[in-house]
Automatic annotation (TrEMBL):
Record's keyword terms, sorted: Membrane, Transmembrane, Transmembrane helix
Protein name, UniProt field: Menorin-like domain-containing protein
Any one annotated GO CC term: extracellular space
Origin: domain of life: Eukaryota
């Protein structure tokens, strides 16, 4: 799978105009634009290469709007709500994102989550030094997400990207999100995030491995085993298909 972060910025050798480029904040210059990236993937597939999965991660509302329209099947990912552990990063506007997804991409799979400040993130505190009620996805986080989906009449296939280290602390409230029909969790983690593996296993067991996908470092993935057998199914990563039709792997 190709994972692509998209920001509004300029090309190194360009005119200085702002448009969607490949990059991760705080970078705002790149040597490749979103349009060039998609063309590269298309060319590889047409040339007989393997079909690629691509996850498009829009970092701001502005770059999402500037990336429209798209003429290929997509899974669209954005942090649309403020998350736990005092995250200061501004989320993508939930209503603007979900409205555009529903009206422009009615067949897309949506990946919608929360901002977070955790682990190796710059400015992150040790979770043990943060008030306990701020160290997990709580009922308010869950209700805010459900309200946003309901308010925007979302009925598309959903996956909720949740940070593994925080999700492992959230066994009480997080499973309620999967009351949404056709929904799943995508567990993700930065390289040096502290994760309680045993509690994370409990979460996977509670919601069922068929409704969990992973996007974590190999070291964590290898720990997610039970009795020597993989705790997760072989189709453990949600993919976005470019050119060909995409369905969420089950």
């Amino acid at each position: 799978m190709l994972e692509a972060d998209i920001v509004l910025g300029t090309l190194v050798s360009g005119s200085g105009d702002l448009f969607p480029i490949m990059g991760h904040p705080p970078a705002n210059t790149s040597d490749i634009s979103l349009a060039q990236f998609i063309a590269f993937v298309e060319e590889g597939i047409k040339g007989g290469g393997k079909r690629k999965g691509v996850k498009l991660d829009f970092k701001t509302t502005e770059v999402f709007k500037a990336s429209l329209p798209m003429n290929f099947p997509v899974m669209l990912n954005a942090d649309i709500l403020q998350g736990p552990i005092e995250s200061k990063r501004t989320p993508v506007d939930a209503d603007a994102f979900l409205y555009a997804c529903r009206t422009i991409f009615p067949d897309a799979t949506l990946s919608v989550g929360w901002t977070s400040l955790y682990g190796s993130d710059e400015g992150a505190e040790n979770p043990n030094d943060v008030p306990e009620d701020l160290t997990f996805y709580n009922s308010d986080n869950v209700m805010d997400m459900m309200d946003a989906l309901r308010r925007n009449s979302v009925n598309q296939t959903l996956t909720f990207p949740v940070r593994a280290g925080i999700a492992a602390r959230s066994l009480r409230d997080l499973p309620a999100l999967l009351e949404q029909q056709g929904s799943s969790f995508t567990l993700w983690s930065a390289k040096d995030d502290p994760v309680d593996v045993e509690d994370l296993k409990k979460l996977i067991e509670i919601v069922g491995k068929r409704r969990v996908y992973i996007d974590v470092p190999d070291s964590l993935r290898k720990q997610l085993t039970s009795s020597g057998r993989p705790l997760l199914g072989s189709a453990s990563m949600a993919l976005l298909a470019v050119i060909a039709s995409m369905v969420l792997l089950r």
